[in-house]
Specification:
The protein is mainly alpha-helical. The protein is built from 9 helices and no strands. The chain starts with a helix and ends with a helix.
Length: 207
């Protein structure tokens, strides 16, 4: 909540839309950006406040994950990574199984809520089968293999392309990663959050 934080938010909000990745406008990634931002923010906020995710945060994240899935399913990889992080967060040094399954249920409730709307629309028009075939089957199986090389070579090509096409902006990402890695007591200390969760669990057991 510092003035510098607000300045950075405004600066990035102005800079990101004019980056080469969004130069043509109207892209799926651009449309999904606010959802990805909220999801990352909600998890970092919970860590910073040393608490678990609330029902609203988990539910809204589920809605956003479903929205991203139906807009461009490859972007849902972000939520796969975020889910893996939350899993490690809940289970590390505390094994919050009950809280974990509660959060999963709340998240899936959000996914189901939006999915019901999407499938309901296609069901009304008798096109559920067409939707599944065109969006899921065709996208997963009919894309041409335009790239060659091993997995690590493809990752290297991707990073090289990203740095080449976004050299003006990419340095801020690498600088942020470097500064965050060097700061052991970063703004969002996972170890402190886990310690707080463990202390809360121990207090409940003692009661």
């Amino acid at each position: 909540k510092s003035p510098m934080a607000y300045f950075i938010i405004v600066f990035l909000a102005a800079l990101i839309p004019i980056s080469p990745a969004f130069s043509h406008g109207g892209g799926c990634e651009e449309l999904c950006l606010f959802m990805l931002t909220y999801s990352l923010y909600s998890v970092l906020l919970a860590l910073n406040e040393k608490r678990l995710l609330t029902f609203r945060e988990a539910f809204v994240n589920g809605i956003f994950a479903a929205a991203v899935l139906y807009i461009k399913f490859t972007i849902v990889g972000f939520y796969m990574g975020l889910a893996a992080f939350v899993l490690l967060w809940y289970l590390s040094d505390g094994f919050q199984w009950k809280a974990l399954f509660t959060t999963i249920g709340q998240f899936l409730l959000g996914v189901g809520a939006l999915s019901a709307v999407v499938f309901g629309y296609f069901a009304i028009h008798g096109a559920v089968g067409d939707f599944i075939e065109v969006y899921f089957y065709n996208n997963l199986n009919l894309y041409p293999q335009e790239t060659e090389g091993t997995k690590w070579e493809l990752i290297e090509q991707c990073l090289e392309t990203t740095l080449k096409n976004n050299s003006t902006y990419g340095w801020m990402i690498w600088l942020g990663i470097l500064l965050f890695s060097m700061d052991i007591k970063a703004q969002y200390p996972l170890t402190d959050a886990l310690a707080a969760v463990k202390a809360q669990r121990d207090a409940q057991i003692a009661d």
